[in-house]
Amino acid sequence: MLGIGGLLALCVGLAARWGAGVTFAVGLLGAEQAVRLARGPEALDPWTPVYAGAFLLAAELAWWSLEPRVPAWAERGAALRRLATVLLTCAGGSVISALVVIAAGLPIHGGFGLELAGVLAATAALAVVAAVARSRVG
């Protein structure tokens, strides 16, 4: 049901060019995937990384379609560079998702290895947030 609601909200948000509707839709679609994965390890399937990349692509393209058109878009190659960036981001999200799925299936029962993996993951997440925060928009 969350997926159907998310799809309807996405259609309304895009048709009305309403950013809050798209935000709500992305939240509902993400919540549906979270509920599915919360059912336990048996809910993980080999297609989960593909779903992650496709979800990110749909969200990026939805937001891109709502952005106001600016004169910079007339610059030669700007749209292609942005499309390449979006596609690389989606591919990166799929790779990270695949790593999480693999890690979720590993028979690790705690100890130093698991703690080290957690510290490295937290450090990597902070590095990504810091890089995004420092990047220039525009």
Looking at this protein, list some descriptive labels.
5 helices, 138 residues, mainly alpha
H/E series: HHHHH
Structural class: mainly alpha
- Mean pLDDT equals 84
Low-confidence stretches: none
What Rg, in angstroms, do the CA atoms define? Answer: 18 Å
Main beta sheet, described? none
- The number of helical runs is 5
Distance between the termini: 37 Å
Shape estimate? globular
Strand content: under 5%
Helix content: over 70%
The counted number of beta strands is 0
Topology:
Elements: H1 2-16, H2 19-37, H3 48-66, H4 78-105, H5 112-134
Helix pairs in contact: 1-2, 2-3, 3-4
Can you characterise this structure?
The chain starts with a helix and ends with a helix. With 138 residues, the protein is mostly helical. The chain is built from 5 helices and no strands. Helix content is 75%, strand content 0%. The longest helix is centred in the middle third of the chain and has 28 residues. The chain is globular and about 55 Å long.
Short description:
The chain has 138 residues and is mostly helical.
